[in-house]
Amino acid sequence: EMDTEQIEKVKTSNGDWSENDIRKYCWTQAIYGHVLDSMVEHNPKLRPFFLFAPGVEESVGFESHFRKNGVRVAHIDATDVILDGKRYPSNRDVRNSILRDHESGEIKGITNRWVLREAVDAPWVEHLVLATPFGSLTTYLQVVGRGLRASPKTGKTCLTICDHGGNFWR
Asked: What is the pLDDT of residues 61-114, one digit of tens each?
């Protein structure tokens, strides 16, 4: 997990950490390998997953990293969607198409910073990758809540959470 001792909390409504401080003090290129290794260990069948990155730039980097390692994922942020290395303007139709392909298994995962934190109903998600520390319990609960719904349609009965940011104990 990341060393979060030097990260300063930002004065926000939810008390989260500064994206710049996360990058400056605890984000390294090495975590890419840890995340992929962890994925292979804890989700070897590549069941549907959401990955939460410390920033948009890192989320885009994860899309590229997974793609180069043979795992088809999409990146979603407020303005863009990236799929198969191609950038598209993000809008409701494009996002819904990505979610449909994710539910069907055509896309294994979706990387993001905050876009999937709230108001996304994806009960088929079986794995959450927390590749960033969260500065507040509210944010952590919102993110984890994305995967806590059972799905009779897909037979999902459990959720795997790989927490690379040490959020669970904090």
From this structure: 999 999 999 999 999 999 999 999 999 999 999 999 999 999 999 999 999 988
Kindly state the helix (H) or strand (E) to which residue 91 belongs, with its residue range.
none
Cβ atoms 131, 58 nearer than 8 A: yes
CA distance 134 to 4: 10
Can you say whether residue 160 is alpha, beta or left, with left for phi > 0 and alpha for psi between -120 and 50 degrees? Answer: beta
Query: The pTM is what?
Result: 0.82
For tokens 């863009």, the residue is 80
pLDDT, tens digit (0-9, with 9 covering 90-100), for 32-63: 558 888 888 999 999 999 999 988 998 999 99
Q: Which token pair is 93?
A: 């139709």
- What is the greatest pairwise CA distance in the chain? 44
Please state the length of the chain: 170
Q: Say which amino acid occupies 92.
A: R
Task: Mark 69-108 as b/e (b = at least 16 C-beta within 10 Å).
Answer: eebbbbbbbeeebbbeeeeeebeeebbebbbebbbeeebb
Q: Where are the beta strands (DSSP E) in the chain?
A: 49-52, 73-76, 80-83, 86-89, 109-112, 127-130, 160-163
